[in-house]
Amino acid sequence: MSDRAGTFDGVHRRNLAKLLGLVHLEGPMSRARLTVETGLNRSTVAALAAELVELGLVEERAPDPTNRVGRPSPVIAADERVVAIAVNPEVDAVTIAAVALDGRVPARERIEVDHVVTPEETAELISATLRRWADGPLAEARIVAIGLAVPGLVRASDGLVRFAPHLGWRDVPIRTLVESATGLSVVVGNDASLGVIAEHLFGAGRGVDDLVYLNGGASGIGGGLVIAGRPVGGAGGYAGEFGQNRPGIGSPDDRRAVGGVLEDEVSRARLLAVAGLEHADEPTLAATLAGSGSPEVAAELGRQRRILATALANAINVLNPTLVVLGGFLATVAESDVEALRDAVRAQAMPAAAETVELRVAALGEDRLLIGAAEAAFGALLDDPLGGAGD
Asked: Has this prediction a pTM greater than 0.85?
């Protein structure tokens, strides 16, 4: 049959996608609840669930014990063996994770590097890691695709990395390189653009239709936008580059980089320096800064917080979001004095725009970019469980 939207086959595929999407986003659900949520009848839901079981995408489990009268409904859950591989290359490490369709992260590895990795090295690291995991945590896994969260400008149409300044990548066909090295389908996106999707679907922005997300990583500051419930990528996929804006700095004493952009002033490298660390993952840096009694650390956190507040106020004035989410080292800067940051933002933003906006730190922690990359990798499967299921 044709898969045109109005055909029986098209409707059937959409209904399969609806069921799979619900258990992916909401977790295990009874068939009775799926019937309510989809508006489909019970026999249709039962048939769709059985087909998804046959496709190896969900599991049907015995119902949980209940005191209710009547026959309890079986529970449908995403199959934990269906996984996407998520990758975040950075200047100090390449982090690789397996993210299951049910949301678990069965494998995660941060591979620290003493040099900036090339695209070719990145592809080989991914391939080598998957070969090692094949006899370990992914022995029973079915890998759907690979998602790459790259700190740079990624062209939406084909995943070409136009420019990742801190990695030194320019016009890099990373999708082709990784596909050749692994034999798997690959999706590429900007790290912060994928991070906002993760936080919107599963984290601090769940249920919020208008939000701004700023991500602070080793390569600087990126951002992502969700407006009216939909991610906004811009004409080429380059929207959200807050880190490249010129910062507003009220006090000349706060400036460190003459003519620099926001990420030159609000900087993970500067925090590492005052903490006395050369390299650190996010939890280690956050714990070191929080446990420090050094006046130098407190002063640097305060300086970065003041400059960040101005950047956030500008974003609020332009976009009028309900929520601003901060991830990575920006969450650490915020948590050093949340009330001071909120007060500084409200003092600089238009009162009408700032009066209802909320500031939160990313709820998914250091996995937010990986979960976002995995969500991109699951995209084809979730859109069409029949056509996007892979081999």
From this structure: yes
